Amino acid sequence: MQAPPLPRFLIPRLPFFYGWVVLGCICLAGFARQGPAVAVLSIFVVPMTDAFGWSRTEMSGAVSLGGVLAAIISPVIGPFVDRRGARLVLCLAVAGTGIACMALSLVQSLLLFYLLFCFARMIWAGPFDLGLYSALNNWFVTRRGIAASFATLAQMSGLVGLPLIAQFAISGADWRAGWIAVGATVLLVGFVPCWLLLVRKPEDVGLQPDRLADGKTPPPVEPRWSRAQAMRTPAFWLLSLYTVFIFPVQAGVSLHNAPHLIERGLTPVAAASVIAFVAMLSGASSFGIGFLPRGWPVRFLMAACATFMALGAFGLIFVSSVETAMAAAGLFGIGMGGVMLLLPVAWADYFGRESYGAIRGVALSLQVTAQAAGPLASGLLRDWSGTYTDSLLLFGTLASLAVMAALATRKPRSLAF
Questions:
Q1: Residue 208 forms beta bridges with which residues?
Q2: For residues 131 and 86, is the Cβ–Cβ distance under 8 A?
Q3: How many other C-beta atoms lie within 10 A of the C-beta of residue 58?
Q4: How far is CA 159 from CA 35, 68, 374, in A?
Q5: Percent helix, percent strand, percent coil in the chain, to nearest 5
Q6: Tally of helices (H runs) and strands (E runs) in the chain
Q7: pLDDT per residue over 3-46, tens digit each?
Q8: 380: Cβ–Cβ under 8 A, 6 or more apart, which residues?
Q9: C-alpha dihedral over 129, 134, 135, 138, to 10 degrees?
Q10: Residue 198 — φ and ψ, nearest 5°?
């Protein structure tokens, strides 16, 4: 892909920092990313299983398989993003997601559903994550947390908006119209801004990260690690260990939270209210944490978020009312929102922008595999014991281990900046 239509020599002369335009593109692409999100798929579960007679397990299996595929391709895509920038990857991701979602309206068999949804889910878990955060981390260093807050908020907005769009279309016609509406929204919102306006990094147009280049202010000092160098540091493996501990908790509790609350005596309406409350706190947490002082070590913030998730998981075991459910699940939501914001920031802060995609691609493989394991473990333990107590004990323990992994993770000090 060539340069955007806006001549590059004009970008440094704009009266504002062009990174905010890039952040706007990232936010719109992040909203569009949620086309194949679990929250969107949940809107289609009842009408599609009624239409075809599929089981809930058959439909949910596509989510896990898509994550496994993402784990395979992410280490390959990461170095490509480092070399070529995020523009091509994000444009292809938006186009692939939009077309796949619209094509789901033509599904007549479970096999075709798997082919299309697994493809879309693979893009959601791999290329989108690498493209969004590579672009963000290239343009922001000292303001990285604030920029990540807005990007995360946009993705949370997609989790709210796209299910509503799907439901309105289904109510007006049928589930096939719902998929068309979702796919069309993805293409309209996400493709054009990325195609026209996204620039690889500020140095390509004579700028510096975070601000206009004034010729006087030196660029921010940041580390420059290759993937091979990073993988020889304890920090890489401790961050990876944190990822492996925390993401089964995030996915396992999130997917099975509603049925657990119902089993604990809450009505379906009350359980749905608790889930909505969790989503609200999660979004508020992910947005607010980005505005905390950058001088605070990210490992302490990661440990605090894992602590909230551990307390929430253990607390859910003892739920007996709406109030106790909101207290426990609310703690979990606060921690979960923080984790979703902090991990991409931590990888960039520890190892720099130069090989972010290659380094993050390896870690992302671990992340999506761990996410796929959480719901499976929760379901198996529920079927074996008859309650979610054992799975919540497991997840609380894993989150506690993540606290220790975070506290042990220190920023690498070797290699000259």
A1: 211
A2: yes
A3: 14
A4: 8, 22, 20
A5: 80, 0, 20
A6: 15, 0
A7: 555 556 667 777 788 999 999 999 999 999 999 987 788 778 77
A8: none
A9: 160
A10: -75, 130
* DSSP result, 22-81: HHHHHHHHHHHHTTT-HHHHHHHHHHHHHHH---HHHHHHHHHHHHHHHHHHHHHHHHHH
| DSSP three-state, residue 208 | strand
Q: At what angle do helices 127-139 and 144-172 cross, to 10 degrees?
A: 140
Neighbouring residues of 348: CB distance < 8 A, sequence distance ≥ 6:
133, 137, 144, 356
* Single-letter amino acid code for the residue at 89: V
Q: How far apart are CA 263 and CA 267, in angstroms?
A: 9
pLDDT tens digits for range 225-259: 889 999 999 999 999 999 999 999 988 887 777 77
**3-state SS class at 211:** strand
SS (H, E, C) 290-304: CCCCCCCCHHHHHHH
Q: Domains in the chain, start-ordered, CATH in brackets?
A: 8-202 (1.20.1250.20), 227-408 (1.20.1250.20)
The closest alpha carbon to 376, from 118, 61, 115, 58, belongs to 61
Type of residue numbered 49: T
Please, where are the H alpha helices in 352-408? 356-385, 389-408
DSSP string of 263-325? HTT--HHHHHHHHHHHHHHHHHHHHHHTTS-TTS-HHHHHHHHHHHHHHHHHHHTT--SHHHH
